[in-house]
Amino acid sequence: MYLQLKLLTMKTPSTSKFSIGSIKYSLYLIPLLILIPTEVISAQQSTSAQGEELFTSYCARCHGVGGTGGEGPSLQGRQFVRAKEESDLVRLVLTGISGTVMSRTWIALDEARQIASYVWALARVDDQLVEGNPSSGSEIFSSIGGCANCHIINGQGVGIGPDLSNVGARRGVPFLRESVVAPGTSIPRGERGSHSNFLAVRVEMSDGRKLRGMRINEDAFILNLRDTEGRYYMLQKDKIDKLTREFGESIMPGYGSTLNSEQITDLVAYMTTLR
Ligand code: HEC
Ligand code: HEC
Predict the structure, then answer these.
(1) Hey, is 232 helix, strand or coil?
(2) Closest-lying ligand 1 atom to the alpha carbon of residue 105
(3) Is residue 127 part of a domain?
(4) Predicted TM-score (pTM) of this structure
């Protein structure tokens, strides 16, 4: 009985997306529909429908509608690092993941359980195949893309932008593509966004010098920044005439016109393999 109910909870997400899967599951379901009293079925279905609805309100802005990925990783067809079973997901929702932008969600335990059950089922549907050729993407990354001039992967490269060693586990495909094509738009806005450590700043010093770079560190008196050539500056704030924090802008060039669409697809495919 327990197993049969599990199958039922898996049904909702798969029917909406994967026709082959749904045919398979409906075949399983024919005998179950006869065995299980109808109240049980409708209770289960409404639970997972509620789970989906709650997911859409609380999680989809980062994980995409249906868990396809965005600023947060895709939750489809994967093993979680921090959740070996469904109950771990309940905890994850209620506590968030410290050190990341995923903060705790303020909902009732019961609602967290519904979300967890929906996400657990998502993790068991087949992941969408990622288009593109990862090995050619890797090639582009270190050659014509010039990406290694600003990014470190497994210790190789220069760390002006974020370390990309596990970017495939942190980000979904749509976000990765947007990061490459239109860097500024994918930066979460505001001081507390996930790239607040990669804030671009423009500085005019009282001696007339003008600088632009990444803010490394800032307090009431000092601003540390690194420019695109990798030079490091420690500036005293009382010597700064004008300081502009460029939220939503990036020092990373957009590649929409320098790389073709196939090259960008390959780059994205490569980055999804970085876990
Ligand atoms: C503000 C954006 C944001 C929101 C909102 C958010 N997440 Fe996340 N989530 C992330 C990011 C980013 C990661 C990747 C963290 C990392 O590994 O660095 C993540 C990771 C995860 C993981 C994978 C954990 C692992 O160990 O593999 C799960 C599962 C998850 N989130 C579920 C949820 C659920 C369920 C909700 C809604 C209750 C939610 N998230 C809301 C950004 C978000
Ligand atoms: C001049 C330096 C520079 C170059 C060159 C560069 N990047 Fe970036 N990249 C950054 C910075 C800085 C960020 C942080 C967010 C922002 O400012 O856009 C970033 C962010 C990213 C992100 C988002 C990472 C995350 O954790 O969310 C991805 C993905 C990315 N870059 C991929 C690439 C790829 C692929 C290339 C080559 C085609 C590339 N970058 C070239 C500086 C650079």
Answers:
(1) strand
(2) 38
(3) no
(4) 0.73
